[in-house]
Design brief:
Layout (H helix, E strand, L loop, with lengths): L1 E7 L4 E7 L13 E3 L9 E10 L2 E9 L5 E9 L4 H19 L3 E6 L2 H7 L10 H11 L3 E6 L6 H7 L17 H11 L4 E3 L1
Parallel strand pairs: 4-7, 7-8
Antiparallel strand pairs: 1-2, 3-9, 4-5, 5-6
Helix pairs in contact: 1-2, 1-3
């Protein structure tokens, strides 16, 4: 530790500043994590969901794929503006409703919202504005074999695309021949096990 002195003109007031010349700052370089979308097992279908917010409002999206990565159904909906965690829960509920319409009995759900995953795993309390939709979804899930897990946003890009308000396809259970080209590319990459970097 040394002291530096200087004169502050025009008052000629003297200040002393203590400077630690032995200070060492540890800099850790950012390391990228590798993540990818994983195929479900044979006989299981996988539901991925996401939500987004913009100045215009909210959007939710989801799709269900089989063990080959083939799409069973998908949806993209514009919704009223809400807190993002409410929309994330709603996206899962809409996806479960789609799974119910398809009669799916073995479902793996993935979402990039840790809070929404915790709500369905009963580790966090269900927000009161989501209780009705949550209870309906949970009633169906309780009658089938299911699980829910977190996925990094970078590996959840297919439904991130579907959740945007400017997504070119809108509605529930959109015909499979109406898959936009950008989404088709993401689906192909996912099915082939493309790895994504998360910083």
């Amino acid at each position: 530790m040394r002291f530096l002195s200087f004169w502050d003109s025009p008052d000629s007031r003297k200040f002393q500043i203590s400077v630690n010349f032995n200070y060492k700052h540890n800099i850790h370089p950012l390391s990228a994590k590798i993540c990818k979308w994983n195929l479900p097992v044979l006989g299981e279908l996988k539901l991925n969901t996401d939500a987004s917010l913009s100045n215009e409002g909210g959007g939710i999206g989801g799709l269900i794929r089989n063990h080959f990565g083939e799409v069973a159904c998908f949806f993209s909906m514009n919704v009223l503006k809400e807190e993002i965690y409410i929309l994330e829960i709603r996206a899962i509920c809409e996806g479960v409703a789609a799974a119910s319409r398809l009669g799916i009995r073995h479902l793996w759900i993935e979402a990039d919202s840790s809070f929404a995953v915790d709500v369905f795993n009963e580790k966090s309390q269900t927000p009161w504005r989501s209780i009705t939709k949550f209870d309906t979804a949970k009633a169906y899930l309780d009658g089938i074999q299911w699980k829910i897990s977190h996925i990094w946003r970078e590996a959840n890009s297919a439904v991130d695309y579907l959740s945007k308000r400017d997504c070119p396809c809108k509605g529930e259970d959109i015909p499979l021949d109406n898959i936009p080209v950008p989404l088709s590319e993401i689906l192909k990459n996912d099915a082939e096990g493309k790895e994504y970097q998360k910083l």
